[in-house]
Amino acid sequence: MSPIVFTVTNNLTYDQRMIRICTSLANQGYVITLVGVKNKNATALTTQPYTQKRLYCFFSKGFGFYAEYNIRLFFYLLFLKANVFCCIDLDTMLPIYFAGKLRSKKLVYDAHEYFSQQKEIITRPKLYKIWHWIERTFMPKFKLGYTVSYSIAKAFKELYNVNHEVVMNATVLNKKRHDLIKDSEVAETKAPFGTSRFFREGVWGSFILYQGAVNEARGLEFLIPAMQHVDAQLHIYGDGNYLAQTQQLIIQNNLANKVFLKGKVLPTELEQITLQATIGINLVENKGLNQYYSLANKFFDYMHAQVPQITMNFPEYKRINDYAEVAILLDDLKVETIANALNELLNNNQKYTLLQTNCIKAREQFNWGVEENKLISFYKKILES
């Protein structure tokens, strides 16, 4: 079947959405190539049912990285056999557009986020000017596309008159793997420090889980101090541009014995860790439309693992939570608000069990099997036209 190329600016190993997308399309018989970055710290690739290509870059961040990678990617695309060129977010849009136009390829835009509206961009005027120019100049030229949330799709339609379908970043449904908690297995006891703890798959524990990018606007400057008022551990899995500041927050708040930075782990490992967590954390600061319109994959990961979570009262999370209450939604990111929500789940067994039970209902509706059908239909339609 028709070859498709996807381009990202990461090293491929930890990108769960792209692993799902490429695997689903490869299983349908499409010839898939996923192109990413290789640098001196790149981890080994895992075996996948599609081709993975990493372009080596001397630079690892900043303007030098984007300039180098975009140039290398452009020349790579000039000679790659593919009928569809798909860029993931704005940071690979230029080489996809110019190489695709030169070779008369179908152009697709997969918006994993509202890229130009990230906090780390809108708070830097010069940087915002560049990315906003790329967005308003080239996005209207991509008539085919899809994104992760209805709010982002609506914004793109209003601003650029492009119709983006919605393929949410939902988790693969695997009942056998995820049904580790039955009502009879949820028990309460008292920890040495006096808080409720829950029994999950033979492990006593009450650790709170933060998974994903440790970036700006993820609420970490409020979450860390809140842990002073919560009798449980916080485990942070991931890294990003806010990692050094997070380390400083732990030291400043004297939480080295309660908050632990675990680093990045493979998606398969993270899944097992999530199954053992008591509460999931998905905080997003309301600074920029990217954050306000977000629908993170960790939201679905917690849901599928039957882990009640703390997240934001933003449109996409509220829409799903109205269908089945799986989370406590926060109206603000005050330290007191976060601490109160965490303690509510740690000490209110009735509330905890309700959210946990609702996860089973929600994951039947919000899972990759449902979203995969939209994805396959999208590519089938454009390749047959």
List descriptors:
43% helix, Rossmann fold, alpha/beta, 7-stranded parallel sheet, 16 helices, 385 residues
What sort of overall outline do the alpha carbons produce when their principal axes are compared? globular
- Give the number of domains: 2
What is the fold named in CATH at topology level of the largest domain?
Answer: Rossmann fold
Distance between the termini: 14 Å
Layout of strands and helices, then pairs:
Layout: E1 3-7, H1 16-27, E2 31-38, E3 51-56, H2 62-78, E4 84-88, H3 93-102, E5 106-111, H4 119-122, H5 125-138, E6 144-147, H6 150-160, E7 165-166, H7 175-178, E8 188-190, E9 196-200, E10 203-205, E11 208-211, H8 220-226, E12 234-237, H9 243-252, E13 259-263, H10 267-276, E14 279-282, H11 289-292, H12 297-304, E15 309-312, H13 315-323, E16 327-330, H14 335-347, H15 349-365, H16 368-384
Parallel strand pairs: 1-2, 1-4, 2-3, 4-5, 5-6, 6-7, 11-12, 11-14, 12-13, 14-15, 15-16
Antiparallel strand pairs: 8-9, 9-10
